[in-house]
Amino acid sequence: MSHNRPKEKIGGSIEHASILRKFTILFLLMSVIPMVVLYYFYIQIQDYGSVQLTPSEFNLTLTFIVLGIIVGYASMRGVLEQLVKMTDANRKALESILSPEKIRELSQEKNEIAVLAHSFTVITERLEENIRSLELARKTLHSVMSKVGQGISNMQNIDTFLELILETVTEGLTGKMGTILLLNDDKNSFFIKTVYGTDLNTWKQIKIEIKEKSTLRSILDAKKPLLLSEDISDFQEVKECARWFKAPMICAPLVVKEKVLGLVIVSGRRMPGGFEENEMGLLANVASQTAVSIENSHLNEDMEKTYFETISALALAVDAKDKYSRGHLDRVAKHCVLIAKKLGLEEGDIQTLRDAARLHDLGKIGIPDEVLQKKGPLNHQEWLLMRKHPEIGESIIKPIRSLSHLCDIVRHHHEKLDGSGYPDGLKGDEIMPLARITTIADIYDALTSDRPYRPKMAQKEAYEQLRNMEDKIDQDIVGAFIDALNEQNDQNNA
Questions:
Q1: Rounded CA gap, 38 and 49, in Å?
Q2: Are residues 145 and 168 in the same domain?
């Protein structure tokens, strides 16, 4: 037993030895054979003299063989030393990318070939993993670009774009929920502009107070992003927010030109651990660009509001030129709203009708005063000029994106169901419902107003006139309008 153990140890040590040691041992073993053969020839020569070599020649030959062996050994060892150095360098390079377990596994392996084979396996696995990551990144980028393209093409206002930004950054940071909070005018409270990660709509009514010396106040004052590992008390005190704003979370202020507009918050995480510093930096950059977009949107809204007010003033100025039609725009707007409410239309449609009514005769600014203020019927040429005012009005508001939804009403408020209207001669369903409402309100006000060529009609007479136009205007709308006017009269007489 005692003799076998050293052999097993020697055998095991040779088997698992380094290439350099294996080569040394094997080379020595291989060198013994030619040395023995040469020695045998030497003995033969000494005893029998049968080899045709003189001792000096044989000695010289033996010397060259030994020298060749030494040189060969030294050369091969040098090559293998380079291999060993390359393996060591490879091992050190791998240590920078491998896990501690893999490093320990490589350190225990002394066989350089095994180390190289293991290294190549690890590198191949890492390359395959990188390829999968690149493919995933490509698909993610494609998805994001598709969403951005869709958001831009469908975007009627800033809301659509903010929803897209919030969805993208929340998914990118593997958050459970994303929120954009904007400051109210009082600067002491937030309203929720948009949310990603919940189907509930209760967030639209939430108001979040900002207390002095609170976490929210400190973020706004510092104007810097913050990583949080604990829930913010300001959110937890609002019942609806408690389940949404859960740590870990990143809060990044929306800052533009030192002005704080609100916060972008990504809360919760779909993977273990909290958020990291580089992720906070990413959200801060997104918040900065988002703040610029919001501010530009506000400036654009203010500019378009100013434009609307300006052209409304122009429309009123045209309206005021004629004493017979003075106040016509305001009255038509009131009639449109009355009809819309009676029909149960949404608030957005009601506002559209109100704005369109204020602008429906804007095109008359391009009609000569002698035609607008003529006392008596218009001749054929004058009538052709007057018929152009819907097109002129549309051309004035069409360049303004925020007023584009008014174009159809302004252009088509003189169309008739039988195709006898102008400027396009539309028929039936070709005329949109809001334009039909405006047409009826416009006709009613014209019937109940004094004109240079006739006195105004009484209300009941105007009702009759509207009823008699069954082939030209929508009688369902006429019925709703008459009912609404009668209800209004009853309220005024009560």
A1: 14
A2: no
Distances (CA, A) of 107 to 9, 21, 139: 21, 17, 38
CB 264 within 8 A of CB 249: no
Q: So what's the pLDDT on residue 138?
A: 59
Question: What's the total number of domains in the chain?
Answer: 3
pLDDT band at 2 (very low <50, low <70, confident <90, very high): very low
- Domain assignment present for 202: yes
Instruction: Of 3, 31, 28, give the one whose Cα is nearest residue 14.
Output: 28
Q: How far apart are CA 219 and CA 284, in angstroms?
A: 12
69 and 135 assigned to the same domain: yes
* Measured torsion, CA atoms of residues 370, 376, 379, 381, in degrees rounded to the nearest 10: 20
Residue ending a domain, choose from 297, 330, 357:
297
Q: Quick one: which of 388, 431, 426 has its CA closest to 409? A: 431
pLDDT at 492: 84
Q: Are 211 and 144 in contact (CB under 8 A)?
A: no
The C-alpha atoms of residue 173 and residue 181 are separated, in whole angstroms, by: 18
Query: Residue 4: is its pLDDT beyond 80?
Result: no
Domain residues for 208? 157-297
Say if residue 242 is in the same domain as residue 357. no
**Stronger pLDDT, 338 or 79, i.e. the higher one:** 338
378-389: pLDDT as tens digits? 888 889 888 999
- Most confident region among 186-190, 335-339, 380-384 by mean pLDDT: 335-339
Question: In the structure encoding, which two tokens stand for residue 293, read together?
Answer: 């977009």
If you search the block for the tokens 């350190």, which residue do you land on?
107
- Amino acid 58: pLDDT: 65
pTM to 2 decimal places: 0.51
DSSP 87-114: HHHHHHHHHTTS-HHHHHHHHH---HHH
